[in-house]
Amino acid sequence: MLSGKTVLVGITGGIAAYKICELIRMYKRANANVRVVCTQNALNFVTKLTLQNLSQNEVGVEEFDIKEFKPEHISYADEADIMVIAPATANTISKIATGVCDNLLTSIACAFTKPVIIAPAMNCGMWDNPILQENLNKLHYTILEPESGFLACGYEGKGRLCSLEKIFDKTVELLDYKPLTGKKIVITSGGTIENIDPVRYISNYSSGKMGLALADTAKSFGADVVLITTKEVSRKYDVIKVKSALDMKEAVEKEFETADCIIMAAAVADYRVKEISSQKMKKTADDEITLKLVKNPDILKEISSQKQGQIIVGFCAESENLIENAKEKIAKKGCDYLIANDISRKDIGFSSDYNEVTILAKNGGMKKLERVDKMTIARQIFEEIYG
Ligand code: CTP
Fold first, then answer.
1. Catalytic-residue membership of 316
2. What pLDDT was estimated at residue 350?
């Protein structure tokens, strides 16, 4: 995703410095060239050797450690496409805001003319200090505000470093990464609604969040997005609202021919009521009633058999034997990829903002994506398909 880009990570002396090791790995996984500069104080929390190994580059600390004809701060500033200062302490923020250049990091920041992200992390009292807030306001950079919670100093309040995913996503956004430009991506989401009568229906617990995360991600990657969903959604891309599996099939068929990729994240009902009553069904004297259901068409299977160059991705919701069932399903459906998720877990899936999935490819390849927020899962799915 970040091939050809250089991310300059500036680490200052706060306890959240240890988290930046993982952020560096995220950038590396996305193929970025990562350069790291840190203040002397940052080295109290994380070692130079760790940062060097993770970034696979030398780590800058000393300002006058000149190796080329160009002063160090200028060569770092020239090489990088973006600078990410995380964690940014109150001290470094205030120095940058007032133009102080007393170490390599602040000197680079002063010379840097490309996008800068600042992710502050500090004690809540320091965060609330009006002098700090005034200095922050002077910076015309992207500030990713800290989050509230339990702080390492023992206090409860605003000051925790925001999530690494947020920093990563903002980096990608500011680098204007548009790998899906010119591609039409169709995504289905939500559980279908199968009417019984004018007041009752059969549906499922699908929240539509995973499909929405995929659609939002595709849009931010520059794709022409069509979201076919059973949920109420307002977005700047095409949203087609449907209800039943049959409605969804019709909408998918309409969009399919011109699509480059279709992702069926919707939970489509396997059966619908055979005869939908036009009037509200009345209670009878019987203790039991029988609803006759008929099979819905398998949309994913049908489009997979008609494909002409489109990439077709299915989802697979399983409550047991996840991988075994997913392998069977990808063969049965004939799609290119199948995203398998375990719906028996409460901490991921259906109405959660998090997911943990395994991507199965038609050629037998398999990749597990560890538990993370659905936006990150969405990004990783596109990386796998188009990477
Ligand atoms: N799907 C579909 N049409 C259906 C049922 C499912 O297109 N009538 C799609 C879903 O959108 C998903 C994939 O098929 O991408 C797998 O859905 P899932 O519910 O896991 O599997 P089913 O085929 O319904 O099989 P089962 O319920 O027996 O596990």
1. no
2. 73
* Residue with CA nearest ligand 1 atom 16: 316
Task: For residue 307, give every residue at least 6 positions away whose Cβ sits within 8 Å of its Cβ, in sequence order, or none.
Answer: none
Query: pLDDT value at position 73?
Result: 72
CA 376/CA 354 separation, integer angstroms:
9
For 181-202, the pLDDT digits (tens) are 999 999 999 999 999 999 999 9
Do residues 369 and 357 lie in contact, with contact meaning Cβ atoms separated by under 8 Å? yes
Which residue bears the tokens 């702080």?
Answer: 151
- What is the model's pLDDT at position 65? 65
Give me the pLDDT at residue 52, please: 97
Could you tell me if the CB of 317 is within 6 A of ligand 1? yes
Write the DSSP symbol of residue 311: E
**Count of beta carbons in the 10 Å neighbourhood of residue 281:** 13
Both structure tokens of 14: 């706060």
60 lines ligand 1 (CB under 6 A): no
Instruction: Enter the pTM of the model.
Output: 0.72
Q: What is the pLDDT of residue 302?
A: 98
Element housing 366 (H / E): strand 366-373
Q: Give dist(CA 346, CA 110) in Å, integer.
A: 47
* Residue stretches of the chain with pLDDT short of 70: 64-72
Give the integer Cα–Cα distance in Å for 341 and 118. 35
297 CA to centre of ligand 1 in angstroms: 10
Catalytic one among 153, 162, 316, 335? 153
Separation of CA 298 and ligand 1 centre (Å): 7
Supply the DSSP string of 28-39, one letter for each residue: HHTT-EEEEEE-
Ligand 1 center to residue 294 CA distance, Å? 15
